[in-house]
Write a structure and sequence with these properties.
Pfam families: MciZ. The chain is of the alpha+beta class. The protein has one domain. Helices cover about 50% and strands about 25% of the residues. It contains two helices and two strands, in the order E-E-H-H. It has a two-stranded antiparallel ribbon with strand order 1-2. The radius of gyration is 10 Å and the shape is flat. It starts with a strand and ends with a helix.
């Protein structure tokens, strides 16, 4: 599982279950993807 945080986007590479897990994990910290990108 790899997560690339590029300027205005997030690229996740991995298996479907890994991506779902990471999205749930990050959704606990950040309400939106935009907020996640701005804070990192």
């Amino acid at each position: 599982m790899k997560v690339y945080r590029i300027e205005k986007r997030v690229v996740m590479v991995g298996k479907a279950w890994e991506i779902r897990y990471m999205l749930k994990k990050y959704s606990r910290q950040f309400k939106t993807v935009k907020e996640w990108i701005e804070k990192t």
